[in-house]
Amino acid sequence: MTISPLPLRPHERIHTKANGSIDTPPRVPTPVHNFGTLAVHAGAHLDPSTGAVISPISLSTTYAQTAVGKPIGAYEYSRSSNPNRDNFEEAIAALEHARYALAFSSGSATTATILQSLAAGSHVVSVSDVYGGTHRYFTKVAAAHGVEVTFSPSLEVDIAQLIRPKDTKLIWIESPSNPTLRLVDIRNVASVAHKHGIMVVVDNTFLSPYVQNPLDHGADIVVHSVTKYINGHSDVVMGVAAFNSDDLKERLTFLQNAIGAVPSAFDCWLAHRGLKTLHLRAKEASHNATSVAMALEASPHVISVNYPGIKSHPHRHIAIKQHRDGMGGGMLSFRIKGGHAAAERFCQNTSIFVLAESLGGVESLVEVPSSMTHAGIPQAQREAAGVFEDLVRISCGIEDAEDLKRDVLQALEKAVVAPKITNGRPDGRVTNGLPNGD
Ligand SMILES: *Cc1c(COP(=O)(O)O)cnc(C)c1O
């Protein structure tokens, strides 16, 4: 390997490690730097052989050894570790104020690996309105491994009663919840849990590390579906967990390798690229969601709006305490007048918002949870959690706020007003020749 002759700045000088391998010292970021600096620089190492500013994608599955058991560099086999995954994990650890991060092939694989780390006979307490796939794993898979999960719609109130002194090992929080955007005071739950030696996990997918850092509020593990805000471009399925404990690092690294639900080097590279603009995207999405939420709240065609970034939200005080600058994030939901049919018509009449599941990408999306993301939950249970047939969920992207607002208002007119006036077509579309998004 030849060392690059490029003129490097002092902090970028390439060093030769004691074992002869070449390394670049850590780039600028340290915990004293702010989010944007960390997002751009953490884990972004210069390529020691060429000086490339952007890491090459290390597609090799295996790495040469100079003697038996003596790899040339830090790597042996790509499932166990590879440079692109290391770089991505380093960046996430910096952004979540964690010592360690481990990446997985999906958010769901992250959840599964954490649950697998619990011994048979363990008990878990979870918020009721967790992500559908998490609910499915908790109820259909964890049980087969002898791990029992109890759900609570009001974790903060019930926590002390739900803990089984010997068996409860983990508390699972999603804040905000999906799709009703309820918040949980992480600090309150963690202080009760820690008295009993119980670990707290927070799924931070809906806010991203830019808006909320659960470890700062007492959580032991923060998990993300990287698929959403962190990658942010709707082209990678991936997950990550971040934490501080050495014991967790050992157990979860062992399982990451043993179970093998690891992301590809290419996906790690893409997600790392996406992450470098997370602060810009999350800020813009939050700004857009605030504009849309306020426009919806002022509309006579809307029953209620769930958005933690505005005053009417019942947990606004938690958002102010727990979120960066009290931001609400890019997700919101609302109940439309006219029932399920109006909710469907709304989603079919937006022209910028795309009717699709998922969230957290640069493009705005819209969906009806009762027939799409949450269709698997029985109606009574769904409605008890506030997921009514007329609920519409919105993921705000980073388009122009005024355009998004106008799109939502015109779709409301078509979904709620037009059918009354025109005795609308059965599909509720108006025939005035305007583009309607399909
Ligand atoms: C999407 C999502 C998951 C699952 O992540 P995948 O990457 O799709 O496996 C978990 N939690 C939340 C809140 C999500 O939105």
UniProtKB/TrEMBL annotation:
SUPFAM superfamilies: PLP-dependent transferases. GO terms for biological process: cysteine biosynthetic process via cystathionine; transsulfuration. It is an enzyme of class 4 (lyase). Residues 1-27 are annotated as: Disordered. Belongs to the trans-sulfuration enzymes family. The modification N6-(pyridoxal phosphate)lysine is found at K228. The keyword Amino-acid biosynthesis applies. This is cystathionine gamma-lyase. Its EC number is 4.4.1.1. GO terms for molecular function: cystathionine gamma-lyase activity; pyridoxal phosphate binding. The keyword Lyase applies. GO terms for cellular component: cytoplasm. Pathway: Amino-acid biosynthesis; L-cysteine biosynthesis; L-cysteine from L-homocysteine and L-serine: step 2/2. It comes from the Eukaryota. Pfam families: Cys_Met_Meta_PP (PF01053). Its cofactor is pyridoxal 5'-phosphate. It comes from Endocarpon pusillum. Keywords: Amino-acid biosynthesis, Cysteine biosynthesis, Lyase, Pyridoxal phosphate.
